[in-house]
Design a protein that fits this description.
single chain; mainly alpha
Length: 64
C-alpha cells in the first residue's frame, strides 16, 4: 500500500492482514498527538534525542 486515507469516527475499525501495519499506524498516530509529552518523558529518563531518528529508536526500539 502506498497511500491511504482514514476518517476516524465514533468507532473506527482497522482490518487487514497480520503484519500489515495496523498497530504501527496507531502507534505513529499516538506519537504525533503526544510528541511533546513523549520527548519530555524520554529526556527526563536520560535519553539524548539529537535528531528524529533517535526519538523513533527510543519510542519504537532500535531497528524498527
Amino acid at each position: 500500500m502506498k497511500e491511504a486515507r482514514i476518517e476516524f469516527g465514533d468507532l473506527t475499525v482497522l482490518v487487514g492482514p497480520q503484519a500489515g501495519g495496523k498497530s504501527l499506524l496507531l502507534q505513529i498516530w499516538k506519537l504525533a498527538i503526544d510528541a511533546g509529552e513523549v520527548v519530555s518523558a524520554l529526556r527526563a529518563a536520560g535519553y539524548s534525542l539529537p535528531n528524529p531518528g533517535e526519538l523513533l529508536d527510543a519510542y519504537f526500539g532500535e531497528g524498527m
